[in-house]
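User: For my dataset I need records formatted as: sequence, then structure tokens, nothing else. Please produce one.
Assistant:
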Amino acid sequence: MILNQQVLSFIGRPVFEKLEIKPPFQHKAIFSDEACFLHIKKGRLTLYSAEGRSYRNVSESLLLKCGLYIADFPEEQTIESTELIAIHLYPDLLNKLFYHEPPPGQLTRVNKSNSSVSEISLPIIQYIQSLEFYFNSPEFATEEILSQKIRELVLLLLQTNFAPSFTDLMKFLFSPKQASFREIIQSHLFTSATQADLAALTGMSLSTFKREFGKIFKESPGAYLLNKQVEEAKKFLANSNLTVSEIAYKVGFQDPSNFSKIFRRKTGCSPIEFRKASTNELK
């Protein structure tokens, strides 16, 4: 659940957002005409998108292009809540802010890699810290100041590892790759994404998703995904020293005991028995 939410708006639209979330919690975010810079102040999250799954931890940042995302906040014994800073980026506002004074075509960058997800750099950490004052004292967050903070973020992004120029940054954020139905399924085979999550990522209703799935894979989503997860688990059991619980989580199960039950139902033996048999075969 969301424990606390603070928003600083610019020209009538929410731009800077601070969230405190109590895990376990799942949130679906649809950025149809905006992008989002996300910084994790405390805790961690698992992010599902059409392109796959990623794990993010404290003091890391994500630059999310327009699209649909499902953020899963897992329950942890070490923390009571997860804290996030989200900065929403709208193409028309960015173009307006940089219309008269566009950034240089090429800036010297701290990191030459070009990735949408990165560990946050020190300058951006300091930038995030500077926002705390305005969340604590919103009366000072005038539109003039907020416009400068948006410009500052863009310039910092251009000097880190997100894009070599303003034009490239805009193209990356607002021209997302369209993953095919098959690509979306394959990239989430071993995640905890539900059939409803996968349907959302493909832009379909659940019933339409199931029909399309059957046409392409000739099986129901439940049967196909379970079979793939069990086959992957067999590989881990035969070729690794991971525990049964670790393997369960790796192939997409949140409950190891449920994994063991399904594995027995599918193979006729428990994971431990399968591992022993595989070891004996190797001997």
